[in-house]
């Protein structure tokens, strides 16, 4: 019987190609927590758990993710049967509350190890891929309308993206609506324009915002108000034609069920790490499907590793009405994979190799790995 022998974690700090301006933080670096599991037969599995903007997006920080794995999750798993991924997920869920991103990093490494030992992609462990490539959005978030327009036009011309998600919520509602209208006018019918408010609006602001956005030709608004304001989300979902998408409100299948029960969304942004792993994300998807909602593959701006893991799951889903935003690696100045993911013709291709289908470039890991000295600097900002 193959056993789990060793679980190693590390933090990587990778610069972004430009400032990424969100309502709650401006990112200049992305910080990823990587997991490597070593098994008794010599096989390995790798995983990633990543958040956005330190503690400004959600309740788990990169340092907290690493600590949760090293201190609490790893001791539960050492010596256990490697191939029993469900058993590991159930044990971790029983003994570790919350900490979904930490659970995700480990769970991906478990699926990756199992797929590699069996010689099949992880998509096959979820019943088989029905897509070889998925549509992929790009986020316009330079903080400047002209820069965003130039970026969008270049993406359309090079056939890299024709779906744009604009990050808004930092400026006034009126300024944001003007910004979105300018971009929509510039791209016209060549692209779909959507926005993500990252919870920045009150219900009152959101009413004005949604009205203005839909008049401007914006197709979808993501998480306009706080995750816990389910009644406000329900009012906005019912009150406007523009699609309302839940993101921060969806932390696993229980939240998905509550969102359906209370009619809080037209669309689910399903994020692997917010759900608590590939399996829990598949449960969120199933709830969304059963309720007849639209589906979208969301990202926490993972590197190629976490992005490849998401691709394995979403390649098995029949209909992703709103596509995906699996562009994380493209926001970084450098990749960490031996072979980068392929982006072309407005899509990202699903890796076909065993496990999650990617391997790491050891030189890149050394270059971006946080060491003790750098770690103090990164925490201090
Ligand atoms: O959806 C979010 O809130 C986070 C993320 C996804 C794309 C992006 O630019 O930021
Ligand atoms: Mn979002």
From TrEMBL:
| Keywords per UniProt | Aromatic hydrocarbons catabolism, Isomerase, Manganese, Metal-binding
Against Pfam families, the record matches this protein to: MR_MLE_C (PF13378), MR_MLE_N (PF02746)
InterPro entries documented for this protein: Chloromuconate_cycloisomerase, Enolase-like_C_sf, Enolase-like_N, Enolase_C-like, Mandel_Rmase/mucon_lact_enz_CS, Mandelate_racemase_C, Mandelate_racemase_N_dom
**Span of domain Mandelate racemase/muconate lactonizing enzyme C-terminal:** 146-243
Q: Which SMART domains match?
A: MR_MLE
Its UniProt pathway annotation is:
Aromatic compound metabolism
Whether Mitochondrion counts among this entry's keywords is: no
Signal peptide positions (record): none
Tell me its family: Belongs to the mandelate racemase/muconate lactonizing enzyme family.
Gene3D superfamilies in UniProt? Enolase-like C-terminal domain, Enolase-like, N-terminal domain
Q: Which cofactor does it need?
A: Mn(2+)
Q: What is this protein called?
A: Muconate/chloromuconate family cycloisomerase
């Amino acid at each position: 019987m193959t056993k789990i022998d060793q679980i190693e974690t590390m933090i990587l700090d990778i610069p972004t190609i430009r400032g990424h301006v969100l309502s709650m933080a401006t990112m200049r670096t992305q910080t990823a927590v990587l997991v490597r599991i070593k098994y008794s037969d010599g096989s390995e599995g790798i995983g990633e758990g990543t958040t956005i903007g330190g503690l400004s997006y959600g309740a788990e920080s990169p340092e907290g993710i690493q600590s949760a794995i090293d201190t609490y999750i790893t001791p539960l798993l050492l010596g256990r049967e490697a191939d029993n991924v469900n058993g590991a997920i159930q044990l971790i869920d029983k003994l570790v509350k919350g900490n979904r991103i930490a659970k995700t990093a480990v769970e991906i490494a478990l699926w990756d190890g199992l797929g590699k030992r069996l010689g099949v992609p992880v998509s096959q462990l979820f019943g088989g891929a029905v897509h070889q490539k998925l549509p992929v959005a790009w986020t316009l978030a330079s903080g400047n309308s002209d820069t965003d327009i130039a970026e969008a036009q270049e993406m359309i011309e090079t056939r890299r993206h024709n779906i744009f998600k604009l990050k808004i919520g930092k400026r006034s509602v009126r300024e944001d609506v003007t910004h979105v209208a300018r971009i929509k006018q510039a791209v016209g019918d060549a692209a779909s324009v959507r926005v993500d408010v990252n919870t920045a609006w009150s219900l009152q602001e959101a009413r004005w915002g949604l009205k203005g956005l839909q008049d401007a030709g914006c197709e979808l608004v993501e998480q306009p108000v706080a995750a816990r304001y389910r009644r406000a989300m329900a009012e906005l979902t019912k009150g406007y034609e523009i699609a309302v998408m839940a993101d921060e409100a969806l932390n696993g299948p229980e939240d998905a069920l509550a969102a359906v029960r209370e009619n809080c969304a037209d669309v689910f942004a399903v994020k692997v790490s917010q759900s608590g792993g590939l399996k829990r994300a598949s449960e969120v998807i199933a709830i969304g499907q059963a309720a007849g909602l639209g589906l979208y593959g969301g990202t926490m701006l993972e590197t190629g590793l976490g992005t490849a893991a998401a691709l394995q799951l979403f390649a098995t889903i029949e209909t992703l009405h709103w596509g995906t935003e699996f562009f994380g690696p493209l926001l970084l100045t450098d990749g960490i994979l031996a072979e980068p993911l392929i982006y072309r013709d407005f899509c990202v291709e699903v890796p076909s190799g065993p496990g999650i289908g990617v391997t790491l470039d050891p030189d890149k890991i050394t270059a971006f790995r946080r060491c003790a000295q750098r770690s103090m600097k990164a925490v201090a900002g």
